Amino acid sequence: MSALMELEKTWQDWLKHNLARGVPSNKLAASLFEKGWIDAAYELIHKSNSNLQIPYIDISHNHIKLMDREVSLAFTCHKPFIAVINNFLSPEECQALIDDADSKLKASRVVNPEDGTFVEHHARTSTSTGYQRGEIPVIKNIENRISELVHWPVENGEGLQVLRYEDGGEYRPHFDFFDPAKKSSSVVTKKGGQRLGTFLMYLSDVDAGGSTRFPNLNFEVRPKMGTALYFANTDLNGQIDKLTLHAGTPVTEGVKYLATKWLREKPYV
Ligand SMILES: O=C(O)CCC(=O)C(=O)O
Ligand SMILES: [Fe+2]
């Protein structure tokens, strides 16, 4: 049954009326979303020819059959949109990424808000390495799987990054979106536009610490090998959402490996 068809008659009339008078469908979808009718909001965006398309995960079922893997939703949050996806990667895929990345890791960098250059910073104490899209077969498969799950083209993804956090390693609270108010924004969005979503994959189990924490939302996701965490950095109107402030908390026992894929508004070429 279509989620739009399941809406109460008064809301269906409201929708028809506003569409007829030319209100953009993403604006109407945002109102549905605010009301908690997430499926209906996404269905509206998906069915309409709205210019603003956004990545979305179908949360109508607890298990999702993808082309090459069945995954399950362990946690969802509506505003901002957040989903924790279990069984997204196999242990073999996690190990293959770790094995390939291990010899290439270098100190991680962050974007300098003043000029858009990448610089080392005490707020991000991990080592990492970046890949081209499809650089090795395991990455190509994973990128296709992400694309299928979030309904977003592979071409709009930045290259995968693999990170390693050792004892005390962390990524202090930050946003992944580019703030239009910052000087660097025009430089970093030139290629691909805004970072609409963040797709993190935990490649290792960590004995203690190493959660991804959302300080403004009061929860954290603990790392578990093969689990993925997706969150939307902007709302349905394309506005940056400051509730997405997040951090990788210090690892206190063990080693945390993480793969990060940022999803852009437009093709990232
Ligand atoms: O380490 C984490 O859990 C968060 C990583 C992160 O925020 C990022 O790579 O942008
Ligand atoms: Fe981040």
TrEMBL record:
The keyword Metal-binding applies. This is 2OG-Fe(II) oxygenase superfamily protein. SMART domains: P4Hc. Residues 156-265 form the Fe2OG dioxygenase domain. GO terms for molecular function: iron ion binding; L-ascorbic acid binding; procollagen-proline 4-dioxygenase activity. Pfam families: 2OG-FeII_Oxy_3. It comes from the Bacteria. Keywords: Dioxygenase, Iron, Metal-binding, Oxidoreductase, Vitamin C. It comes from Psychrobacter piechaudii. The keyword Signal does not apply.
